[in-house]
Amino acid sequence: MRKAVLLYFKGLLMGAADIVPGVSGGTMALITGIYKELITSIDQFNFKQLLVLRKEGFTAFWQSVNGPFLLPLFLGIASGILFLSGGITYLLEHQPILIWAFFFGLILASIYVLLKQFALKTLRHYALLFIGFIIAFGITQLSPASTSNNLLYLFFSSMIAIIAMILPGISGAFIFILLGVYEEVLATIKGAIAVLLDFDLANFKTVYTKVVVIGLGIVVGLKLFSRLLTWLFNHKKEATLSVLIGFMIGALPKIWPWKIEEKIGEQINFINANPLAFEGDPQLGIAIGLIVLGAACLILLERY
Known about the structure:
The chain is mainly alpha-helical. It has helices at residues 2-19, 25-31, 35-44, 48-56, 58-64, 67-94, 96-117, 123-140, 151-165, 172-178, 182-197, 201-235, 237-251, 284-303, and strands spanning 259-264, 267-272. Helix 9 (151-165) packs parallel to helix 12. It is globular.
């Protein structure tokens, strides 16, 4: 039971991170020590388990799909996305400096912890880390696309975003923004609960059609990519970790707390700013405190 509760809270952290553009649920999985088991469990999940269920019963089936691990974790992820999306959206709109500061401290400390656990030994490791940095940094500099309401486009967007979500350092939420469907996905998540409380059949069909399409995209993306990641961890672990740490370092500029808006035509870009020269209230003291708090939470979690 204790393990299940811990897995639930790790999933909650992953779900909350996946909502925030610039923060990756995969990062949370990596720094909480469940990343390899997660991608291995997803990779092993297939139709053969149904034969186990038929021939050997539910208990054998449950163990074969690593149910004691996946169930509390995915319940936590779902809870984080469904119940924290409103609060995180509110903070992103009204207290962006403070929420970005907390996540910045969290990711900064996670990079430190991973580098401490996995010492870069060769020039090849440094080269792979640099490649990971360039890829993640390059992705964060791309401009968002215009929104598309096509269900097929929503399916492929979800498939691509979930691949990013399980890669530490590359934000699935930011991929949704780049593909122009972030607001639609967030509205669908919020609407999935609201439509049950205030039931309307037509609205229910519209919202849950999108929920199913997004869910299918996620399942397909997870299944396709988990096999590659599992192989990389089993055969090229040090090289893979080098690239993943590079991803996380490359994502840091995206979650810098102090940003200024720059409008080019109809498009608005956010540029990192010096907090000492920040227009408006930089909330410097509280922000630094939250950076320290985020880092402390991660270091305490790692020690625990």
